Amino acid sequence: MILDSHVHFNMILEENKITEAELVKSLRYNNIEYSVQVSVEVEDFTWSRDFAKRNHESGVFYTLGIHPSSSADNTALSKLSSSVEQEIKSKYNRLLLGIGECGLDFYRMRQKREMQIHSFETQIDLAKKFKLPVIIHSRDAMDETLSILKNKKCSHGIMHCFSGNSQAAKRVLDMGFFISFAGNVTYKNALELHDAASYVPLDRLILETDSPFLSPIPLRGKQNLPENIRHTYKYISTLKKVSMTKLEDAVIENFESFIRR
After folding, report:
1. What are the boundaries of each domain within the chain?
2. What is the pTM of this model?
3. Which of 39, 75, 117, 243 reaches 20 to 30 Å from 105, CA-CA?
4. How far apart are the C-alpha atoms of 144 and 35, rounded to whole Å?
5. What integer best gives the mean pLDDT of the chain?
């Protein structure tokens, strides 16, 4: 059994090339035990929750969070807080995997640095309050990201779509986080990612598609789908010189440590 720890199902469906029923059916057909619908803005919250509720028997979870490229004024952050509190009290609370994706993105800089930092710190506080993991986005901001996490004494979560080398990976692991690799780890010239993926031990490794983005080789340039995670599994298995079965078991076990029973 395999999993996809980070999907934007709503974005896939917006392209209208596949129906929700077909998409969920493909999860089962491709032996995807778990998948996670990840929120990036306030407008995602209700849809993400309802999608997970409709498809929980197919192993679908969801997150609530605001991406660093999304607007996160006080109204948005208040809505996030109230939504999390409401879902924690609901009978489907186990489907809420964590807070995110949140973090810092100094590559795109679609939001001002000050807003990104305030949003990230607020979401960390929210995750700690409800004992939820944080799903972290960090691009061109690793030093700042780790500094905030250290100051907030936060060590429970996943560094999503990791984009550094083995030295950066060591810093993330030393703080207690799991590291997740997406399809870009399969790219020929992604030498730093190859270095990092070789370094991260199996018991701290997670895999994802980040679909509809970052399709792995040999599908680069096409819309990504959860089923394409198999190419990333195959690549990591070869890179780390471990059997597919051993890799699959390790990733499932790591992910299950975040699931609230």
Report:
1. 2-256
2. 0.97
3. 75
4. 29
5. 97
CA pair distance 164, 142, nearest whole angstrom: 8
Give the tens place of pLDDT for each residue, 177-226.
Answer: 999 999 999 999 999 999 999 999 999 999 999 999 999 999 999 999 99
What is d(CA 51, CA 177) in angstroms, rounded to the nearest whole number? 27
The predicted structure's pLDDT at residue 186: 98
Summarised one tens digit per residue, pLDDT across range 96-125 is: 999 999 999 999 899 999 999 999 999 999
Cα–Cα–Cα angle for 36, 40, 45, nearest 5°? 75
CA dist 39 and 99 (Å) reads 9
Beta bridge partners of 4: 35
CB atoms within 10 A of CB 252: 15
User: 3-state class of 173 per DSSP?
Assistant: helix
Tally of CB atoms within 10 A around 188: 8
Tokens of 113: 């640095």
| CATH match of 2-256 with 3.40.50.300 | no
Question: 3-state class of 181 per DSSP?
Answer: strand
